[in-house]
Amino acid sequence: MASHKLVHLLPIIVLITIPTGYVMASPPAIKAAYWPSWIETFPPSAIDTTLFTHIFYAFLLPSNVTFKFEVSDSTASQLKNFTGTLHQKNPPVKTLVSFGGGGSDPKLFARMVSNKGSRNIFIDSAIELARTYGFDGLDLDWEFPKNPEEMASLGQLFKEWRVAIKKEAKSTHRAPLLLTAAVYFSVDFQWNGIYRKYPVESIAESLDWVNAMCFDYRGSWDTSATGAHAALYDPNSNISTSYGLRSWVRAGVPRNMVVMGLPLYGRTWQLKDPKVNGIGAPATGVGPGDDGVLIFSEVEKFNKENGATVVYDAKTVSTYSYTGTSWIGYDDSQSTTVKLKFAQALGLRGYFFWALSYDSDWEISKQASRAWVIG
Ligand SMILES: *[C@@H]1O[C@H](CO)[C@@H](O)[C@H](O)[C@H]1NC(C)=O
Ligand SMILES: *[C@@H]1O[C@H](CO)[C@@H](O)[C@H](O)[C@H]1NC(C)=O
Ligand SMILES: *[C@@H]1O[C@H](CO)[C@@H](O)[C@H](O)[C@H]1NC(C)=O
């Protein structure tokens, strides 16, 4: 254990040496998290706002027919309660409403962005929604545009959205709404044999920042071997957070517009052989949790109750635990801290968590807030 720690001090020290001139010029850091609106046991009042700068309401969808937001009475009161509560807190935080999410139909957005008329309707309705319910900004989480045409239309949407936001701010004499997007961990990717790349020019000129979803690299869709689902490094592939974040920077998105995603959950497997229990060990199925997913507080509970062995893996910068045939890959405070150093050394703007309420007594959220030393 002790020698393990020593080995890890070195990269941390190296990474901490950030060119200060650059740091001084950067805008305030983003320390964000998404709030899953369906978890009734975790109301907005439970959010510790000393740890965050921005909280995203997850999620809303426009009508799949009109592309307008048609908010029910119960959702309306929840939206008002969310912004009202978070703005009254000491310190207050900024609030954004996020549209879409991993579980929503990507074709809805594909249809909406495909022509100017429906883009306009969506944009105007989104701005009106934000103002009606007191949000500071808007976020699009479309998972995912499926080809170059959809990526081009997304770029068009962002440009028109920014124009509309500026216009509204001018005519109402209010601060412009923030505009952000949750995006794939990498700026470009091949999927189902189709190459696609995010519209970086439009993003750079239209958005405040992007939230890169640096997680879910492995999971229940491949049960042949265990994996670090949010590995910072992968010696064998480009599916890693370091590759993804650098790809955004290399493509020309300003560093201070890139925000690193951090998972507050693990992914689990059943080991084929309890004695072969590293990353990449043969597996036979998913392990504990809902479809092989355990939120961080459940991981800690599981480890404790089952006396699991916990290992920090420096090669991938991830944590895993195992007991019997159960195996969990996740991030704890230690691996999260190393990732934060990496993101700061790269000059990125900040980090966000998926998701609020998955932490264990704010353990990782607190450590992250302390570890992000700039901005
Ligand atoms: C729109 O949503 C409704 C309700 O979820 C669904 O039944 C319908 O098929 C959707 N329409 C389109 C065009 O996707
Ligand atoms: C939010 O809802 C809670 C629980 O119903 C209530 O106690 C609180 O006063 C509401 N806060 C705001 C700002 O609406
Ligand atoms: C990773 O991406 C680089 C380009 O960014 C490419 O040259 C290389 O072949 C890729 N490696 C793998 C293993 O796919």
From TrEMBL:
Residues 29-375 form the GH18 domain. One of its GO terms (cellular component) is extracellular region. InterPro entries: Chitinase_II/V-like_cat, Chitinase_insertion_sf, GH, Glyco_hydro18_cat, Glyco_hydro_18_chit_AS, Glycosyl_Hydrlase_18. SUPFAM superfamilies: (Trans)glycosidases (SSF51445), Chitinase insertion domain (SSF54556). Keywords: Glycoprotein, Glycosidase, Hydrolase, Signal. One of its GO terms (biological process) is carbohydrate metabolic process. Residues 1-25 form the signal peptide. Belongs to the glycosyl hydrolase 18 family. Chitinase class V subfamily. This is GH18 domain-containing protein.
